[in-house]
C-alpha cells in the first residue's frame, strides 16, 4: 500500500502556501505524479469549502506535469485543471490524453458535411 505524504489533519489545517511548498518538495523527492494531482485536487476542494483564497494551487507544477506527460490519473482529473492553461495548451493536452478525440472530431466534421446533402439522394429505390 502506498504511503500518503500528508495526513488529513495536515491537508486541512496547514496554510495553503505551506502545503504548496510541501507538495512541490514531495514531487521533487518522489516523482509521484498521480499522488501530486490528487493532493492538488484536495487543495482545490479545500478552497471551495473554506475561506482561503488560493486561485490555482501549485500552478507551475501542474502545468509542468500536464505539458510533459500523461498518466491515467492525470486523464481522470484533467478537467479540474482547465483554468491552468491557455486555449492552445488545453487543446494540445486533450489531444495527447485522449488520442481518439481528434479522429472523432474529424468524423463529426464529415458527418456535418454529409448532412448538408439530402438523405433521399442516397436511397436505393
Summarize the structure.
The chain is mainly alpha-helical and 125 residues long. 65% of the residues lie in helices and 0% in strands.
Written description of the protein model:
This protein is mainly α and 125 residues long. It is 65% helix and 0% strand. It is built from 7 helices and no strands. The longest helix is centred in the first third of the chain and has 17 residues, at 33-49. The model has no long low-confidence stretch (mean pLDDT 85).
Could you outline the blueprint of secondary structure elements for this entry?
Elements: H1 8-13, H2 16-30, H3 33-49, H4 59-68, H5 72-77, H6 87-97, H7 101-116
Helix pairs in contact: 2-3
Order of helices and strands: HHHHHHH
Give the radius of gyration.
Answer: 21 Å
Number of domains: 1
The number of helical segments is 7
Helix content: 55-70%
Mean pLDDT: 85
Form type: elongated
Strand proportion, as a percent range, falls in under 5%
In the predicted model, the low-confidence regions spanning at least 5 consecutive residues are none
Classification by helices and strands: mainly alpha
The largest sheet is: none
Distance between the termini: 65 Å
Q: What is the number of strand segments?
A: 0
Amino acid at each position: 500500500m502506498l504511503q500518503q505524504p500528508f495526513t488529513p489533519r495536515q491537508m486541512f489545517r496547514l496554510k495553503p502556501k505551506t502545503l504548496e511548498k510541501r507538495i512541490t518538495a514531495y514531487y521533487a523527492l518522489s516523482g509521484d505524479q498521480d499522488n501530486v494531482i490528487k493532493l492538488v485536487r484536495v487543495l482545490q476542494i479545500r478552497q471551495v469549502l473554506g475561506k482561503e483564497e488560493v486561485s490555482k494551487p501549485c500552478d507551475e507544477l501542474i502545468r509542468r506535469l500536464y505539458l510533459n506527460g500523461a498518466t491515467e490519473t492525470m486523464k481522470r482529473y484533467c478537467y479540474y485543471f482547465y483554468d491552468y492553461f491557455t486555449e492552445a495548451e488545453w487543446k494540445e493536452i486533450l489531444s495527447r490524453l485522449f488520442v481518439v478525440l481528434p479522429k472523432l472530431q474529424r468524423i463529426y466534421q464529415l458527418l456535418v458535411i454529409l448532412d448538408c446533402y439530402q438523405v433521399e439522394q442516397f436511397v436505393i429505390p
